[in-house]
Write a structure and sequence with these properties.
Residues 1-20 form the signal peptide. It is a single chain. The chain is an alpha+beta fold and 198 residues long. It has one domain. 15% of the residues lie in helices and 43% in strands. It is built from four helices and nine strands. The longest helix is centred in the first third of the chain and has 12 residues, at 2-13. The protein is globular, with a radius of gyration of 20 Å.
């Protein structure tokens, strides 16, 4: 768990070092191209009310919640509308996978986006209540301020069991890369989001 958290923090903060430029006088901050103009952080919180078709007349089970903390790095390639473009995304999802997948991503020009929502969904009761899953993906976002419209599409992988892999066994050669990837239970993820504000 500590390795996953450390990798997420490093993947989020390490590219900020690229904004430091060598001007012959040591390292200095490049004011012409600030790092925050190409970075975006998102926080999504979702609460889901489970629908249990096997117990329609009984008291429903307790609601489940999930939190998703994401960081996007925009590459300023092929932007449409007022902003956006191709981006790389790294995230940490906390909570049941079905609830975390249901949380909509905030789309817009702000450097920090926070969204919260509640929905009703069929939830697998055997699913663990609290898990931390790292996500790595590539996506495209665009928005139009005057219309209040935003579109986002992502494709990536989600590690369902990041603690199942041991970096030490991989580097020592006792585990193969294939076995390490299989033990992490990588799952493909495709997300398509449409937002409208009025």
């Amino acid at each position: 768990m500590r390795i996953v958290l450390l990798a997420t923090v490093l993947a989020t903060l390490l590219p900020l070092a690229a904004t430091a430029a060598d001007g012959g006088q040591g390292l200095r901050w490049d004011n012409a191209n600030p790092a925050w103009s190409t970075w975006q952080a998102r926080l999504s919180v979702t609460s889901t009310l489970p629908l249990d078709s096997t117990r329609p007349n009984l008291t429903p089970p307790a609601a489940r919640a999930a939190l998703r903390l994401s960081s996007d790095r925009y590459f300023n390639l092929a932007p449409l509308g007022d902003g956006g473009g191709l981006r790389a995304t790294t995230a940490l999802w906390l909570g049941p996978k079905t609830v975390a997948l249901g949380s909509a991503a905030a789309i817009g020009p702000e450097a920090w986006n926070i969204s919260a929502g509640q929905s009703a969904a069929l939830i697998d009761n055997s699913e663990q209540a609290a898990t931390a899953m790292p996500y790595l993906g590539l996506g495209y976002s665009t928005w139009w301020r005057k219309l209040g419209l935003g579109i986002s599409a992502d494709v990536g992988v989600l590690a369902q069991r990041p603690g199942g892999a041991s970096l030490g066994r991989l580097l020592s050669g006792s585990d193969s890369l294939d076995l390490t990837l299989r033990s992490m239970q990588l799952s493909p993820v495709f997300q398509l989001n449409l937002s409208y504000s009025f």
